[in-house]
Amino acid sequence: RHVYPSDFCEKQFDTYNARLLSLLEGKERFVTDVPTDYFFKSILRKISGGRTGIDIKKLQVKRVIRRRITPVFKDPFQALMLEGHLRQNRKAVAVIRHPDAVWLSVKRMGWEFDFLNFACSRLVEYLLPGIKLKDLLSKPEIEKFSYLWLIINKYIFSLNLNPFLNIVLHENLCLSPFSELNKIEKFLLLDSNDVSKSFIKENFFTGEADVANDTLHVRQRDAATLATSWYDKISVEEELVIQNICGELVDQIYGGWRAF
């Protein structure tokens, strides 16, 4: 099992692509135990297949009514298989967020990353000349994160001229949600609908920008403030580490380190 499988390895791409198609067809389920689930919720998760399983069942029902319906599949762990999907004329939307902001979220959640099962070594050597995958194993956690962010986003940004790819900056989504939604809908050939607009109205302009606990998905946030809330929350030392590793790519993508 690979964390971030890569299309740099053809066999790896074929394996995970086949599993994805099997999942979308409802032939396979991937359900993991969540430590925070109470007993009955863990049983329900196994029966339903979790949120993904429920969405797949909804898709199957909708396909009975409307045969020509295309699912929009969200999976950040498919990021390094992006070129393989684009070669098959699958449209993709990639959301990039500033590494300082992502690091604060990673730290808040207490996540750590192990490069042992990461993609493949050739990808690292191609994107980061002079660095080998084994070099990353013993790095401090903040450096591991920085190199992970750099690898993923350098790979994504290298595909930015592909017409089947739409790169969206998280900060633009926070500051101009309706405009960005409109662009995404046009790119995916989706009809504009009031459900998406209502979700934005109900969730993007309320609550605090940040959360203090380890809750993963907090929908009600002050999105405009969230875009730059990391400015006064990250330490000088942490920012220097991340900037030394990711700074050149951030300048390419954003036009500056603190561009908003």
Question: How would you describe the overall organization of this protein?
Answer:
The chain is mainly alpha-helical. The chain contains 12 helices and 2 strands. It has helices spanning about 10-25, 40-50, 50-65, 80-85, 100-110, 120-125, 140-155, 170-175, 175-185, 195-205, 225, 235-255, and strands at about 90-95, 165-170. The chain has a two-stranded parallel ribbon. α2 (about 40-50) runs parallel beside α3 (about 50-65). It is globular. It starts with 9 loop residues before the first helix and ends in a 6-residue tail after the last helix.
- Average pLDDT, rounded to a whole number, is 84
Helix/strand/pairing category: mainly alpha
Coarse morphology: globular
How much helicity do the residues have? Answer: 40-55%
Rg, Å, rounded: 19 Å
Order of helices and strands: HHHHEHHHEHHHHH
Unreliable spans are none
Strand coverage percent: under 5%
* Number of beta strands: 2
Question: What is the makeup of the main sheet?
Answer: 2 strands, parallel
**Strands ordered across the widest β-sheet:** 1-2
What is the count of helical runs?
12
- The end-to-end span amounts to 38 Å
List its salient traits:
260 residues, globular, mainly alpha, 2 strands, two-stranded parallel sheet
Give the arrangement of secondary structure elements.
Layout: H1 10-24, H2 39-48, H3 50-65, H4 82-87, E1 92-96, H5 99-109, H6 121-127, H7 141-157, E2 165-169, H8 170-175, H9 177-187, H10 194-203, H11 223-226, H12 236-254
Parallel strand pairs: 1-2
Helix pairs in contact: 2-3, 7-12
Brief rundown of the structure:
By secondary structure, the chain is mainly α. Helix content is 51%, strand content 4%.
